[in-house]
Design brief:
2 domains; alpha+beta; Nuclear Transport Factor 2, Chain: A; eight-stranded antiparallel sheet
Length: 162
């Protein structure tokens, strides 16, 4: 499993980040994102003055992915700064919490894809989504300090059809 601090440092100390950050001092770390077993980790930085996000992808090398992109959030919602010092539950533990929950309550659901976001919405949380073989979406939010399940919901993927 990936160690977040190492991933964060890989981005922070990369030439790409340093060059960008010189001109973008008000951006702060706001999230980590990945689709498990499909890609590297995306590390996101947010600017409150611009209300924009810049993303770096960390695979073998660090590359800038998006610069000053519009962020998808509810109007007026604040994007909180993510402090890695607050994270007490690592990714492996968070995934085990979701797996235990799935096995107890949704045992017929098999994950085809697992989407992982670490972010702060009032408190740091793991936002883990299973896209299942039965075309359902199981979303579980876990407090990244305590490991407590904050929210869980399952819904048909077809609900997202436009």
């Amino acid at each position: 499993m990936i160690e977040l601090k190492k991933l964060y440092d890989n981005v922070r100390y990369s030439k790409e980040f340093k060059d960008w950050h010189k001109k973008n001092q008000d951006f702060y770390l706001c999230s980590f994102f990945t689709i498990l077993d499909e890609q590297g980790w995306q590390v996101d930085y947010y600017s409150p003055s611009k209300d924009r996000i810049t993303s770096f992808i960390c695979e073998k090398k660090v590359k800038m992915l998006n610069i000053d992109s519009k962020i998808f959030k509810k109007e007026g919602l604040k994007v909180d700064k993510l402090d890695l010092g607050e994270i007490k539950i690592d990714l492996k533990k968070a995934l085990n919490i979701v797996l235990d929950l799935k096995n107890k309550k949704y045992s017929n659901e098999k994950a085809n894809k697992i989407i992982i976001i670490l972010q702060k919405i009032k408190k740091p949380l793991w936002n883990i989504t299973y896209l299942t073989s039965t075309f359902n979406i199981l979303n579980v939010k876990i407090d990244a300090k305590s490991g407590k399940v904050i929210e869980e919901k399952i819904m048909p993927a077809l609900n997202f059809k436009s």
